[in-house]
Amino acid sequence: MTTVPEMLSVSIKKAFELAQKDNLIANVEIGDSAVERPQNPEHGDYASSLPLKLAKPLKKNPMEIANVLAEYLKKDELLDDVVVASPGFINFKLSGRWLQNQVDQILSKPESYGVTSAGKDKSIQIEYISANPTGRLHVAHARGAVIGSTLASVLKAAGFDVQQEYYLNDAGAQIGKFHKSLIARYMQSLGDDVDMPEDSYPGEDVIAIAEKIRDSNNRTYDTSNPEEILDLGRVGIDLMIEGIKEDIESLKIHFDNWFSEQSLFENGQFEKCMTVLKEMGYVSEKDGATWLLNTKLGEEKDNVLIRSNGT
């Protein structure tokens, strides 16, 4: 589909050719018509700075060039108004009738209207939501989900090869906190009188997961056994991810890739990266923590890679 800037560029080139034919402008190559959105919407729907670019090769005042082109452009059916502004801009207001006609175009081509090839042969990854799998999604996550999905759809319509990714933060301190919360809720669901750990996840969703594990598994987990505690935690995370996926499906959003942070540790990629960074001199040990020396890369400060507690 031809975009509005492309149509305006064609109109500008036609106006330029007519002005040349009438001997009002010398014969020079105009190249890009420099059509873009104006910074101030009150100036119009689109604007062109072409007269400023042509002032030197034409040896004319850019305002004079703009006024000549504007007279021809005012006859274009695509436009309702053409205004010249200092120091040499041409501002365009699209025709109301043309805009109304686009409604019919959209209704007649609902799947293809607006599709362009601007991003042809270009790939882009959009990672969004990526909430910790320690609770169900909330309204703020839904907002990000809609924005991310819409952006992906727009880029696809522009011809980009788009991959949508959900980055699962299933490693780190928050997962340990979730495990402790789940163990306590699981024990409570079995009738044990246990207190919730300090700084735990108090949400109803953790209770629901604990009760689901109690009711749906053919086993009772021994919470005094470290191996069984790990198994319980993994099951809890898996169930929480299932719930997150249900929330996302209700929004009609599809992710091409669910990337697990934990996989970086399990497949050795994290250790490989750390080895490379250490060999390059970008990592140091300080205050019991491992630091990435961002200052060597031009940043203002260094950042912690691994905290003193190992997370």
Describe this structure in words.
The protein is an alpha+beta fold and 311 residues long. Helices cover 46% and strands 15% of the residues. It contains 10 helices and 10 strands. Strands 1-2-4-3 form a 4-stranded antiparallel β-sheet. Strands 5-6-7 form a 3-stranded parallel β-sheet. Strands 8-9-10 form a 3-stranded antiparallel β-sheet. 20% of the residues are buried. The mean pLDDT is 94.
Total of DSSP H or I helical runs spanning 4+ residues? 10
Largest sheet: 4 strands, antiparallel
Helix-strand sequence = HEEHHEEHEHEHHHEHHEEE
- pLDDT averaged over residues: 94
Terminal-residue CA separation? 51 Å
CATH topology of the largest domain: Rossmann fold
Q: Give me the CATH superfamily of the largest domain.
A: HUPs
Instruction: Give the second-level CATH assignment, the architecture of the largest domain.
Output: 3-Layer(aba) Sandwich
Classify the beta-strand content into a percent band: 15-25%
Count of structural domains? 3
Helix content: 40-55%
Enumerate the strands of the largest sheet in spatial order, edge to edge or round the barrel. 1-2-4-3
| Structural class by SSE content | alpha+beta
- The CATH class of the largest domain, by name, is Alpha Beta
